[in-house]
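User: Working on a comparison across species. This one is Ras-related GTP-binding protein from Oreochromis niloticus. Can you predict its structure so I can line it up against the others?
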Amino acid sequence: MALTYQVNAVGKLDTTSSLNPKQNVSMTSEKVSVLCGEEDEALEYDDDEYDLEAFSDADLSCEDRAPGFSDSMNGVVKPRILLMGLRRSGKSSIQKVVFHKMSPSETLFLESTNKICREDVSSSSFVSFQIWDFPGQIDFFDPTFDYEMIFRGTGALIFVIDSQDNYVEALSRLHLTVTRAYKVNPDISFEVFIHKVDGLSDDHKIEKQRDIHKRTNTDLTDAGLEQIHLSFYLTSIYDHSIFEAFSKVVQKLIPQLPTLENLLNIFISNSGIEKAFLFDVGSKIYIATDSSPVDMQTYELCCDMIDVVIDISCIYGMPNVEAGLPHDKDSMAIIHLNNTTVIYLKEVTKFLAMVCFLRKESFARKGLIDYNFHCFKKAIQEVFDVRVKVQQTRKLLNQRRWSKLTLTSGVCSSTH
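Assistant: Here's the predicted structure for Ras-related GTP-binding protein from Oreochromis niloticus:
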């Protein structure tokens, strides 16, 4: 497909465009306030013992924050994602391709994992969590392992099944893992990656997924655990399916997801946009999208556009930028497809970017779109600022309560 693109690596956003007052379609602060209402209410603690207003804004802010809210998740407990499955099922390859930008062909030379690998995904990405990669040969239900500790702090459990291998043993291990994990932490999101489907025909893929889904649910029903919900994904590191699957997993760990979706719905309805994604640029995971269905081809075009922007910015962008981040929060790109569709990318922060799909005639109102984007950007800033303040306030409250308990126990010990 022939693409003509315009890239402005460091262009400044102009929010002073003169708009027709009759076109009352821009997002208003009242709408944002309604959408952020739940987070605002969370700040109101009924605790007379602690004066929360005694803490200044500096006490509630994150350390080393980048401009905007790109590092909003610092200083809070990060959700944990467990990668489990039998040996050679592709767990480490998934992690390397998604979060380390390793070429799929290079994963053929990866050595088999022989110990639990923990990785903190937050240094060069907006999404913030821990990934624990478990070797397939380790029996973590052995008495020497504290599996309750492992599952207690877990947000999502991804079980990888090799679709090109005999998966009877894998389904048995999956059932054992899910049932024990659910008893420890019923809030875990259970995700099943039916992996390595690139060598299968479409009919064979559907047949594999239907068979695994049926067997798994039958085993859970027989065990009286039909309330456990499993999500199934067909994945491969040789296409974008693994990125889309990981996007769905990560979205379940983002408490602000409903608010982000509402903001995107308001943005596209008031801007004449057909589809919009909010991407984590480093991993090409979309953390939110509007309520319309996601088309795989559309998602692939978004990933390709992000690659184009990063490549162009590496060549023509700013010379003095942070390592691994050739773009900045003012970067933008426009790609005109040969079917009158325009793809419009604008950086929200150095980690986040919005990718929009719209018709050529709608793009003629670019000034309106940019103004609405400016309102959207401010709304997201407010959402994550409120979230950070809530988490920081709770952390301060816990520290005070812990100090009080420690002091009380010390006084009791001295009296005895």
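For your comparison, note: Residues 366-415 form the longest helix (50 residues).

User: Helpful, thanks.
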